[in-house]
Amino acid sequence: MRVEFHPEAQTEFIESALYYEERIPGPRYRFIVEIEYYSRLLQSHPGLGQMVENQFRHLVLVQFPYSLIYTIESECIWVVAVAHHHKRHGYWHVRI
Predict the structure, then answer these.
(1) What is the pTM of this model?
(2) In this structure, what CATH number is given to the domain that contains residue 18?
C-alpha cells in the first residue's frame, strides 16, 4: 500500500522542516526522517493510528509535536494533514 500526501499536507511537511532548519541546525533532518519512518510504517500497518473522525486516523510523532492525519483508501493511505498539535482541531476538514 502506498502513502500519498494531500498537496496541503505536503506543504505543511515542507514548511515545518524549513521552520526547524531556520531555528536550530540539524532538527530538520530528524523531522524528515521521522515523517518518512512513519509513512513507511503505515504502509505495512495502516490501522496503527487512533481513530479521530469517521474514517480518519491520527498517528502521533514521537520527537516532534505533530500528528499525521490520514485515511485508508482502497489502494493507498491518504495523508490529509501533517498537523501541529497547537493548530485548531479539525482545521483539515476542508481538504476532504
Answers:
(1) 0.89
(2) 3.30.2310.20
Split into its structural domains, the chain has a count of: 1
- Three-state SS across 2-38? EEEECHHHHHHHHHHHHHHHHHCCCHHHHHHHHHHHH
* Residue 96 covered by a domain: no
Q: Are 59 and 38 in contact (CB under 8 A)?
A: yes
- The pLDDT, as a whole number, for residue 18 is 87
The pLDDT of 76-80, averaged and rounded, is: 95
Instruction: Answer whether residue 56 is part of any domain.
Output: yes
Helix (H, G, I), strand (E, B) or coil at 60: strand
